[in-house]
Amino acid sequence: MNDIPFADYLRRFDYDERVAMKIQLPELLKLYAEGQVQLIDIRFNEEYAAWRVGIGRHIPLNELPDRLDELDPNKTIVTMCPHYDRAEIARLFLTLKGYQARYLTDGMLGLADYLRGDKARDYMARIATETNTD
Fold first, then answer.
1. For residues 56 and 59, what is the distance between their CA atoms, to the nearest angstrom?
2. What residues pair up with 41 in beta bridges, in sequence order?
3. Chain-centre distance of CA 120, in angstroms?
4. pLDDT tens per residue across span 101-131
5. Where is the Rhodanese domain (predicted)?
6. Please, are residues 103 and 78 in contact by the beta-carbon 8 Å criterion?
7. Is residue 88 within 8 Å of 42, Cβ to Cβ?
8. Rounded to whole angstroms, how far apart are CA atoms 22 and 93?
9. pTM, whole model, 2 decimals?
């Protein structure tokens, strides 16, 4: 992958990029079930130890530069944190490293609220079905 200088990224930043850098829950959940995205929880280790959502991989933001080999360059990388501030920092870093990256605008709190009860059961069943059809 080729690094993109920050100044070059800023020069080409436009309304399309502003939309493309974000992803909301319905699209994320669809693409994740289809295996098109890799979901990365970028919270600190203590936060992850305290609670997790059960999907995605944990790579703390401060470890991300040293763990790029854990990312799938053939998938869109979606970063998430409780809200979205650190997820956007991670998304920008990954974009500058040449990855196709987006951040979850609803944050993990939105994800946890969305995947409750029957929705969680049905979604996990969908993931199991779609990942076993290869």
1. 10
2. 58, 80
3. 18
4. 999 999 999 998 888 889 888 888 888 887 6
5. 33-120
6. yes
7. no
8. 14
9. 0.89
